[in-house]
Amino acid sequence: MTSQIPFAIDFHVHSDDSYDGHEPIELVLEHAADIGLDGVVITDHDEIGESLRAAEIAPEYGLVGIPGVEVSTRHGHLLAIGVEERPEPGQPFMETVETVRELGGIAVVPHPFQRSRHGVRKRHIQDADAIETYNSMLFTGYRNRRARTFARRRAYPEIGASDAHYLPNVGKAYTEILVEPTADTPTKAEIDGDDLVDAILEGRTQIRGKRTPVHKSTVQYAKGAVRKSTYLLTSRAPLIPTVPASMDRS
């Protein structure tokens, strides 16, 4: 029996291209390589430019390159993994899921049910390709446990991720992807981002890592709030709002 080849990937990381991000992609990639990850997916808020660049230069750091973006849908956030084009923000959740698939990517639901972070509510998740069942930035384990229960009852593949917005939190949680070698990809060197995305769809994932310490999470939230406020005050391109929970009747 051929052994599966493991890859350690953090699928949910922000750069300074996010309104609440902090570090340039070069520092993120360098840090990811230093701590032993095989790759990170830059998933900036409604921006894909730096993610595309990160995926292109990732091999220079010994990493697998996978592009992505965190899309603000009408009903909450959605990770579009493996896409090279940004889905239009502000559209209904399920419509965005279909758009991600049409673009050749997979639709992953991040931090579901957590309204304070634009998590999608259960009734809107009619379908998805995977669920982020471990987000290291959550202060308690309750939301992660709820996401895990939801995913397992519906047989969705699971991923874990850091949701890092600044460097020390990258890789606090990640996903171990188990890839079956083939005649075309017999070793780790031949396996690319498409192979890793396919492995997620097949459910060959294991969650690794732990929660980010509360004091570090607090620092990230505080810095993010300041940057978001500055963005709102200075930008002519306002953030795409999701529907407030109290007004969501769809």
Quick recap of the structure?
The protein has 250 residues and is an alpha/beta fold.
Features:
6 helices, 5'-3' RNA exonuclease activity, TIM Barrel, 250 residues, alpha/beta, PHP_domain
Written description of the protein model:
There is one protein chain. This protein has helices at 25-34, 49-57, 93-102, 142-153, 193-201, 214-234; strands at residues 5-13, 39-42, 68-73, 76-81, 106-109, 130-135, 158-161, 173-179, 205-209. It is globular, with a radius of gyration of 17 Å. It has one domain (5-240): TIM Barrel. The chain contains 6 helices and 9 strands. It is of the alpha/beta class and 250 residues long. The longest helix has 21 residues, at 214-234. The strands form 2 sheets. A 5-stranded mixed beta sheet has the order 3-4-5-6-7. A 4-stranded mixed beta sheet has the order 2-1-8-9. The termini are far apart.
